[in-house]
Amino acid sequence: xxxxxxxxxxxxxxxxxxxxxxxxxxxxxxxxxxxxxxxxxxxxxxxxxxxxxxxxxxxxxxxxxxxxxxxxxxxxxxxxxxxxxxxxxxxxxxxxxxxxxxxxxxxxxxxxxxxxxxxxxxxxxxxxxxxxxxxxxxxxxxxxxxxxxxxxxxxxxxxxxxxxxxxxxxxxxxxxxxxxxxxxxxxxxxxxxxxxxxxxxxxxxxxxxxxxxxxxxxxxxxxxxxxxxxxxxxxxxxxxxxxxxxxxxxxxxxxxxxxxxxxxxxxxxxxxxxxxxxxxxxxxxxxxxx
Length: 290
Ligand code: HEM
Hints:
- The protein contains nine helices and six strands; from the N terminus they run ββααβααααααβαββ.
- By secondary structure, it is mostly helical.
- Helix 3 runs antiparallel to helix 4.
- The protein is elongated and about 75 Å long.
- The model is unreliable at 275-283 (pLDDT under 50).
- Protoporphyrin IX containing FE is lined by residues 18, 85, 88-89, 92, 104, 107-108, 111-112, 114-115, 183-184, 187-188, 190-191, 193-194, 215, 218-219, 222, 225.
């Protein structure tokens, strides 16, 4: 069983040309298995979640009914990225499983949209959002250990409530960052192999071996994204995660959900700036935006 497909170059060298397409099915079946194992674990084995209690009544009383979570720009980015990702996945993989159509043009157009949306996201997240909110911190690591110990029946203090993003979401973001950037980095060069509106076609830009490895990396990132996106959609649809999904549509989550899962000290509620309110007079857990 070979994970790659090979061909002989005009110079007699054996070069990889792309991944073996059965890997598509490996990714789909792994995604389905994950659903089954995770849903069974939650239904029959997982203990109810417990957090160290964090917020005082004073803080709880100061939390608005709708807690702002994603700005309009962040939501538009998310849905544009999601639409382009789905178009990329379907245009890339449907032809490999027997549904033939002229996929390349749709694919590079969706690839361009994804690339531009990610460039926007990098600038937006670095300069206009809280850049560090999505990276694991020391409390996440300490709490991951506590959660594992408690899950296997050992004695450990209850973990804190989450900051804006739970550790799982932060790890997922890291995985999608690596696979997404691999698909984009290779995809931009692969546009030299096809006709686009951006630059003249130049299949001689790299050697056969370099092109082959680039196609392999693109394909591996692609099948990785099948699994990652299946898992993402599964969590987005799970009943207990629906408030988070709704916040990606409407921009806010309810006070009850916020207080149940999030620690106002780790993720203070942002209020629009007002001329009279002073940050010093706000209880801890609420801060002025901007
Ligand atoms: C979800 C993300 C993506 C997936 C799943 C994906 C998947 C694929 C797959 C499986 C192929 C066939 C490769 C082969 O024959 O070995 C392909 C080709 C291609 N991809 Fe992507 N891709 C993605 C993102 C992108 C992006 C972001 C771009 C451009 C910026 C891009 C540009 C291309 C081009 C130009 C080809 C055609 C190459 C050719 O036919 O010679 N892709 N993609």
